[in-house]
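Fold these two proteins, one after the other.
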Amino acid sequence: MNVKLLLDENLSPKVAEILRNDDGLDAVHIRDSGLLEATDPEVLERAYTEDRVLATKNVDDFVKLARARELHPVIILVEDGDLVRDEQLRVPRASRLTAAASISRARVVASSTQTVPNYAPTHGSTTP
């Protein structure tokens, strides 16, 4: 299964570029999708509409948004907001297999594969 990624504005646009060029993934950044000024609900809807996994550091807001929707895309929650670009790359790379295995419009996936109803901080853990 080919996982398509949408990286939120709080992650580096270079990460999407590297994932596309080096890993061959269908990864786009908010900036390149015309969503730079979009609200969080608009970003979530775009990910859902395009069947993309959303990667974001905006954990609290997207957890609330996902809980409020009956259906939503898979979300990779990056809790460590101080990750440099190389560290940001490790999260979607480690999570993409987990996400591919659990693609479901009814789940939010943290980097450690915990779901929102049982959500517990992972602090950037990328171990599936």
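Now the second one:
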Amino acid sequence: MLFHEPWFGADYYEKHKEFGLDYLVFGNWQLEHAQMVKAICASMGLKIQGSGTECQILDLGCACGSIAEGLRQVFKVPTFGIDPSEHMIRLGRTRFKDLDLRVGSGMDMRMFRDESFGLIHSMQVFEHLLPHCVKSVFFEMRRILMPNGLCLAYLDYPDAPGAKDDCTHTCLRDVLWWKVVAHECGFWTSGERPLVFTKRR
């Protein structure tokens, strides 16, 4: 099990919606975030344009797919999303018709071929993993990334406000911990927010 999956079903979605965080809402924030991601990719020498698998994007832990939709509109390339929540993927498929949204686990992404993506994006997902599953997820990420492909991971660290109060934060670690594990799994790392993983050859 990747994490305590019942935490992220219909109740999780409805609770966050009640408090003002609806994972189905799409607007300027998602587009502005995607523009920032594009700028980071350009600064790292990664061009996501044209056709081919090197120009595909995956949003890992996509929830309903609103961020993935922003990435699709800004980069203008095929964009996929994967999330273990059947409820949120079902909602996303009704709203974001041009995305390829899949129900699945980051530990087992066999629905995607080797070297299928130029970019993997992840927003506040890794801190929800069970610690013993982290390397399995990273190895799968490395498998599906193109050579020199990037993963941009936005995650909460222990010093983030309220981070320690969230019971779903089962892997709350400092940035050095994440960088050491990523290096052991075949990545170079840089930055902090986001933490950028570059696939080593």
